[in-house]
Design goal:
Blueprint (H helix, E strand, L loop, with lengths): L2 H7 L2 H8 L1 H14 L1 H12 L5 E5 L3 H17 L3 E3 L2 H6 L1 H4 L6 E7 L5 H13 L3 E7 L5 H6 L10 E5 L13 H13 L6 H24 L4 E6 L2 H16 L5 E6 L15 E6 L4 H17 L5 E5 L9 E2 L8 H22 L28
Parallel strand pairs: 1-2, 1-3, 3-4, 4-5, 6-7, 6-8, 8-9, 9-10
Helix pairs in contact: 3-10, 3-11, 5-10, 5-12, 5-14, 10-14, 11-14, 12-14
């Protein structure tokens, strides 16, 4: 927990929920193991179908969860996996659900009460003849969990809802432990990930130093942050930028792009007081492109303004490293890498005198989205 939050500046919930992630990840692994028979009974027959389409959906951070784990699942399953935000699916359902093929809709939802989350499930059932639902959520009282929970039997039911460990339904404004837990749940039950304990160990070892490092980054008073990554880490860059934007109430500009895409115009966002953070891929081929943009930025920006985070322990290339994770896929290590961005967002929010738990006290932006009208689909 940060020094400033303890001194009364706010952010107690956010700090606690960032720090608790190694613990809740271990709890998650135990919970999923205990439910293995039920999970396999639901998913095994579906994943055996060559024509199954998997759609990962959610809004905001939950949408980025799909963008992060999607490439990892595609690689692990060697099948089509599409990440489509509920905000896109609901507004353009006939485009995103144009193919009437067997579909597994995987819904990421912290609260399960967002209007788009509920509407996406309904629209998928309306437009797809054979649609099954896997719900990953943190709120046992959410409408999505209550409507789709229940025993899955031997795969003959249409839905399975998995609840994340207690405490992951973040009380802070921004999603932290909720999103990393849902990501790891998806990678475990769909992608066969068995590395949660290793990830928890790496995170627990790094958290104290990451907190201190994040304060040092913020003490340099950057006016904006740029987050870059490739593949699954492009989605992680987007989530990182959103976390900063949320916790600083939009007072600090943040931008995200792919390592290759950044040169094509978005590079214009850089200033002499920008901090650019590049997530380095574990894939040797992809990593070359990430390192290229790191070197280019180092030549163009003042010393100390380019940060690179990875898992390969290249002393000359990585500002921060998790070397014990260098052999794992990028989607798998993303929940650990994002700890850096979470701490930067928390430290920057506190430095601005904001309360990270409630950066919008007037309610202009809400923890659970309000005011959305869901329109009936014209038949």
């Amino acid at each position: 927990m940060t020094r400033r939050s303890v001194d009364g500046a706010g952010g107690l919930w956010t700090a606690r929920e960032i720090a608790q992630q190694p613990v809740v990840w271990r709890e998650l692994a135990g919970s999923l193991s205990a439910q293995r028979r039920q999970i396999d009974g639901f998913l095994t027959p579906l994943l055996a179908r060559d024509d199954l389409r998997i759609v990962l959906t959610g809004a905001g951070t939950s949408a980025f969860a799909g963008q992060i784990v999607g490439p990892g699942l595609t690689r692990a399953l060697r099948r089509r996996v599409d990440a489509v935000a509920t905000t896109d699916l609901v507004s353009n359902p006939r485009e995103h659900l144009a193919e009437d093929v067997p579909t597994l809709l995987v819904s990421f939802a912290r609260s399960g009460d967002s209007p788009e989350s509920l509407a996406a499930v309904r629209l998928a059932d309306e437009l797809v003849t054979d649609c099954r639902h896997l719900v990953l959520t943190c709120n046992p009282d959410g409408r999505l969990y209550r409507s789709l929970s229940g025993p899955a039997g031997q795969g003959n039911r249409r839905s399975l809802a998995l609840l994340m460990p207690p405490g992951t339904n973040d009380q802070g404004f921004a999603m932290t432990s909720s999103v990393t837990s849902m990501m790891l749940a998806a990678l475990t039950v769909l992608g066969g990930c068995h590395d949660v304990a290793r990830l928890a160990d790496a995170a627990a070892a790094a958290l104290p130093d990451l907190e201190k490092w994040a304060r040092e980054v913020v003490d340099e008073r950057p006016d904006r942050f740029v987050y870059l990554g490739s593949g699954a880490l492009t989605g992680l860059a987007r989530e990182s930028a959103l976390k900063l934007l949320e916790l600083t109430a939009g007072r600090v500009v943040s931008f995200a792009d792919s390592s290759l895409g950044f040169r094509h115009g978005p590079k214009s966002v850089l200033t002499d007081t920008t901090v650019a953070l590049v997530y380095l891929s574990n894939d040797p081929y992809t990593r070359r492109y990430d390192l290229d943009i790191v070197r280019e930025l180092q030549q163009a920006m003042p010393a100390g303004r380019v940060v690179s985070i990875g898992c390969r322990d290249d002393a000359e290339e990585e500002t921060w490293s998790f070397p014990a994770l260098g052999h794992l896929p990028d989607a798998t290590v993303a929940p650990v890498l994002v700890l850096a961005a979470q701490h930067i967002a928390l430290a920057q929010s506190l430095a601005l005198g904001l309360d990270p738990d409630s950066p919008f006290p007037a309610g202009g932006v809400n923890r659970v989205v309000e005011g959305v009208t869901i329109h009936e689909l014209d038949q």
